[in-house]
Amino acid sequence: MQRLAHRALAIAIGAAVATACSRSEPEPLPPVVPPATTVSRTPLSQMPGCPLGLPQASANVVDRPGGVAVELAAPAEEEVALRSRAENIAKAGGRGLIDACPCGARPGDLPYGGDRLGPGETSEVPRKDLIPPPADVKLEDTDAGVRLIFHAKDEHDVPALRHAVRTHVAQLTTGACGGM
Fold this sequence. Notes:
By secondary structure, the chain is α+β, with helices and mostly antiparallel strands. It has four helices and four strands.
């Protein structure tokens, strides 16, 4: 009798295991991983003080003794707006380009040499690479538009000034701010 009970128990366990195995429940899905945080980009059209926010404006960066120049050009119908925006940048001094075209840097970021960077960057380039060292800025007329000339206040800052202005203009002209 005991043998019969063991056999019955073995059959019952086998049936239970077979039933459990025959119910194919789907494997649990892996946990949902939120997408990586995307970088917010401000379209140039939403930067009303930026010369490159004009639909047909273009820029070229050229090294100059003691600094760097940004040559801005636009067709005749945008020339007045281009000049006005460039004049405002020149009046604002070395930070004028960042304030007018804050791609990758926010107005009011720490000046050159600051180390508090925090969240809120609008490009993949760290703000420290976009913030120029102290510079004087003047405006010149050209045949195609205007030229903003950035002259480092300290000759040792010339390479950093050139790097910051070139990097910033590249961000603006390549669409890294959300497009032109």
